[in-house]
Amino acid sequence: MIAHRIVSTVPFSDQKPGTSGLRKKVTVFQQPHYLENFIQAIFDSLEGSARQTLVVGGDGRFFNRHAVQVILRMAAANGFERCLVGQCGLLSTPAASCVIRKYHAFGGLVLSASHNPGGPQEDFGIKYNIGNGGPAPENVTDAIYTRTGVIDSYRILSAPDVDIDSLGKRILGDMTVEVIDSVLDYVTLMQNLFDFDRIRDLFRSGFRMRFDAMNAVTGPYAREILEERLGAPVGTVMNAIPLEDFGGHHPDPNLVHACDLVQTLHGPDAPDFGAASDGDGDRNMILGRMSFVTPSDSLAVLAANAHLTPGYADGLAGVARSMPTSSAVDRVAREKRIDVHETPTGWKFFGNLLDSGAVTLCGEESFGTGSNHVREKDGVWAVLMWLNILAARRQSVSEILRSHWRCYGRNYYSRHDYEGIDSAAADAMMTHLRATVPGLADRMLGSFTVACGDDFSYTDPVDGSVSSRQGVRVIFTDGSRIIFRLSGTGTEGATLRVYVEKYEHDYMRHDQNTQESLAELVQLANKLAEIRERTGRTQPSVVT
Ligand code: G1P
Ligand code: ZN
Question: Does the annotation mark 158 as catalytic?
Answer without folding.
Answer: no
